[in-house]
Design brief:
137 residues; alpha+beta; three-stranded antiparallel sheet; 3 strands
Length: 137
C-alpha cells in the first residue's frame, strides 16, 4: 500500500506527527468558561438537594394529587430505620410542609412486653400496626 502512494519502504505509513516534548499530541486548547459573569448568574440548588437528601422529581411524583381531588389530603406511611429503632409515621403534604397525623416508634413496644429487638422485621410490622391503630382511633 505504501508503494502505491509512492512512499519509500523505510518510512512509516500513514505518516504521524512527532509529539511535542512532554506534551500529549491530542490535547486541544480549552477556553475557561467559569469566569466572573458565570458566577454572577449561578443559582445554587436547594439545600436538601445539595445535601443529597431529597430527590425533588421523585417527591413531586409521589406527592402530586389528581386534579379532580382538589384540596384532599394524600396520606402516606413513612418508615425510617435508625441505628436502634424503627419509626413509622402517617403524613400528608401541604404547601407549608409535611404534616404528621400519627407516629409510633419501636421503643414503645416495650410497654407491650417486647424487651429487645426493636429494629428487625417483626418490630417494624408491630410498629406499623401500632401507628395504624392510633390513626383509626
Amino acid at each position: 500500500l505504501a508503494q502505491a502512494y509512492g512512499v519509500p519502504k523505510s518510512s512509516t505509513f500513514p505518516p504521524t506527527l512527532p509529539a511535542a516534548a512532554g506534551k500529549s499530541s491530542n490535547m486541544a486548547f480549552v477556553k475557561v468558561l467559569k469566569n466572573k459573569a458565570y458566577f454572577k448568574r449561578f443559582q445554587v440548588k436547594p439545600r436538601r438537594r445539595r445535601e443529597g437528601k431529597t430527590d425533588y422529581r421523585a417527591r413531586r411524583k409521589m406527592v402530586r394529587q389528581d386534579k379532580n381531588k382538589f384540596n384532599n389530603k394524600k396520606y402516606r406511611m413513612v418508615v425510617r430505620f435508625t441505628n436502634r429503632r424503627c419509626i413509622c409515621q402517617i403524613m400528608y403534604s401541604t404547601i407549608r410542609g409535611d404534616m404528621i397525623v400519627a407516629q409510633a416508634s419501636s421503643h414503645e413496644l416495650e410497654k407491650f412486653g417486647i424487651p429487645a429487638g426493636y429494629k428487625n422485621y417483626a418490630a417494624a410490622y408491630c410498629t406499623g400496626l401500632l401507628v395504624a391503630r392510633r390513626v383509626l382511633k
